[in-house]
Amino acid sequence: MIGRLLHRAFRANETAVHELNYLFWECTTRCNLHCRHCGSDCFAASQDVDMPLEDFLRAFDTIPVAERAKPFTVVLTGGEPLLRPDLPEVGAALRSRGVGWGIVSNGWFYDAAMHARLAAAGLGALTISLDGLEASHDWMRGRPGSFARALKGISVAATDPRVNFDVVTCVHKRNLGELEELYTLLSGIGVRQWRIFTIIPIGRAADDPEMHLSDAEFVSLMDFIAAKRHPRPERGSMKVTYSCEGYLGPYENKVRDVPYFCHAGINIASVLIDGRICACPNIDRDAFSQGNIYEDDFWQVWQERFQPFRDRSWARRGRCADCRVWRDCLGGGMHNWHGDCAEVLNCHYNKIKQTKKH
Asked: What are phi and psi of 351, to 5 degrees?
């Protein structure tokens, strides 16, 4: 209990200070794949024009240098960022401002030549997705050959200790039984960090039953991660963690390094393709955008707005209204509130509680 009280105090202080240290840039919504779980519904012939680098930098430069967190990271997301031909220029511009940068990629275009170009521009962080063995991954990504291309990119990135690299996997019904083989595959090629998440019912995944685990399947996933983390893995082995989707009750200290804390709008912001200012890109942009870089001063928006992220009392409704773990959960991750926000979409704590009853 003392640990939970200390964490609540830490979270309250972080919220009050709200130091921005992680900024997503949705630099394109063009994508070469057609993924079943895409929350942004990206596609190759996107009607959105890639945001010019100078527009993003104009917004970023409103952050006073003296008040800029150290370290500070800008992460390019999409869409598929590697469809932009100017990524080396983007990286160089960010490095010249003294900040780190990274990308989230599907891995199709990531090879040794691309890695060399981006590393020369100061690439510091990289995430590549792998969503199952070959058949499962290609089914989910909507393009044959996706698994082979992603695995090639992963193999290249895993060899460079200068880059903070991880593989991220969306677990669904088709790949749940493949996790042991994936663990062996990834650890065997030198991957050091494997991050696992589950899908929320938004975007293309909203009405796709194969994308959503049952409560019992979700608990089996927690047990898999816990088994890979405890006892603590030997030095140099692959680290496995569950993402920051929601409070997990008895699994909190088994599947994560630190207790659950949704940092969206507290330490994390995003600039979306149309200039809107929000937190994580997966959060409902219609409900939670706080301004627009083409109309507002980005830094002023960060300092003065984001109230729905910093005071979560509005989320104590629906199934959350009388929840006994509210003070540890605060309604779960902000990306679990969509539409009219009348009810949280996913409650991981309840999945665990209901399964453990039987």
From this structure: -60, -45
DSSP 260-284: ----BTTTEEEE-TTSEEESSTTS-
Bridging pattern class, strands 193-198 and 239-242: parallel
What's the CA gap between 180 and 131, in Å, rounded?
Answer: 13
d(CA 354, CA 160): 43
- Name 342's Cβ contacts closer than 8 Å, sequence gap at least 6: 317, 318
Determine how many CB atoms are found less than 10 A away from the CB of residue 342.
8
d(CA 222, CA 274): 37
Query: Is this prediction's pTM over 0.85?
Result: yes
Of residues 129, 81, 83, the one with CA closest to residue 101: 81
Q: What residues have CB less than 8 Å from 224, skipping those under 6 apart? A: 179, 180
Quote the DSSP letter at residue 172: -
- Cα torsion 141, 177, 170, 232: sign: negative
List per-residue pLDDT tens for the chain, 358 residues long: 788 899 999 999 999 999 999 999 999 999 999 888 775 554 444 678 999 999 999 999 999 999 999 999 999 999 999 999 999 999 999 999 999 999 999 999 999 999 999 999 999 999 999 999 999 999 999 999 999 999 999 999 999 999 999 999 999 999 999 999 999 999 999 999 999 999 888 877 778 888 899 999 999 999 999 999 865 545 568 999 999 889 999 999 999 999 999 999 999 999 999 999 999 998 999 999 999 999 999 999 999 999 999 999 999 999 999 999 999 999 999 999 988 888 999 999 999 998 876 5
Q: Are 296 and 276 in contact (CB under 8 A)?
A: no
